[in-house]
Write a structure and sequence with these properties.
3 domains, 8 helices, alpha+beta, two-stranded antiparallel sheet, SH3 type barrels, five-stranded antiparallel beta sheet, Serine Threonine Protein Phosphatase 5, Tetratricopeptide repeat, 253 residues
Length: 253
């Protein structure tokens, strides 16, 4: 029985390794197709990796590059946005997104975030939620060890040092916990979308008879802020607010 379990575990490990190796090979093939200027095939190869459930900022970035070179600016914008959602500090993705927006003639003046919100986002996006979680666990259990030593130790100086060090680690643990939570919400949120089609009408109220206040251009980014029935209240990057019926023509970021 144990032998069978061992065989199954080894088979599972080798299966996972082979699967990941296959994804890496497909990624290299996608890059090779891009270098050979076969942009459509390159995009298809990168898309096939996404269909397996794998994703990364580098994958979205390269997919965006393939679409941009294939003259599909809106799809390029979408994938650059997805790359930046996973890695907001991806300088190349930021630059290429700006170029794609200019190419698509829909660069919009963005209302800046509140400065404290911006500072907090810049801090929690330094690392992934997994990294912040690991830091939390390490600092938390080390804190516990320090306080146990403080309670049971016999040398007064060492007990004092353990207590002070434990307090410092406790602060780090609390801070990293909130950073992990914020980053996880950032990584998993789907409160933004990109307009993918022509003639999408933004209305001032959630009523079919209401006259449109704006025709949204493909490549326009918007944020969901409320919902009434099948109507979504959305906000554009320039601060304008309106309503859309359903999610037709939108792609969540």
């Amino acid at each position: 029985m144990m032998f069978r379990i061992g065989v199954l575990m080894v088979a599972f490990i080798f299966g996972v390794s082979a699967y990941l190796s296959g994804q890496a090979d497909d990624f290299k093939k996608g890059l090779a197709l891009f270098e050979n200027k076969n942009y459509e095939a390159s995009a298809e190869k990168f898309e096939s990796i996404l269909q397996t459930g794998q994703s990364s900022s580098e994958l979205y970035y390269n997919l965006g590059n393939a679409y941009f070179q294939n003259k599909e600016a809106v799809k390029a914008i979408l994938n650059y946005e997805k790359a930046l959602k996973l890695n907001p500090r991806f300088v190349e993705a930021k630059f290429n997104l700006k170029i794609a927006l200019e190419e698509n003639n829909n660069e919009m003046i963005e209302v800046p975030d509140f400065f404290l919100t911006k500072i907090w986002r810049n801090i929690h996006t330094i690392a992934s939620s997994n990294v912040w979680s690991i830091l939390f666990l390490i600092s938390f259990w080390t804190t516990v060890a320090c306080f146990i030593f403080w309670l049971l130790g016999k040398v007064r100086k060492q007990k004092k040092q353990a207590f002070l060090f434990g307090l410092l680690l406790l602060v780090i643990a609390i801070f990293s916990f909130f950073l992990s939570s914020s980053q996880y919400e950032w990584e998993t949120s789907d409160d933004s979308a990109l307009v993918m089609v022509e003639n999408l009408k933004l209305k001032s109220a959630p009523e079919a008879e209401n006259k449109p206040i704006l025709d949204l251009q493909p490549g326009t980014k918007l944020y969901f802020i409320d919902k009434i029935g099948e109507w979504y209240k959305v906000k554009l990057k320039n601060g304008q607010i309106g309503w859309l019926k359903g999610e037709h023509g939108l792609e969540r970021i």
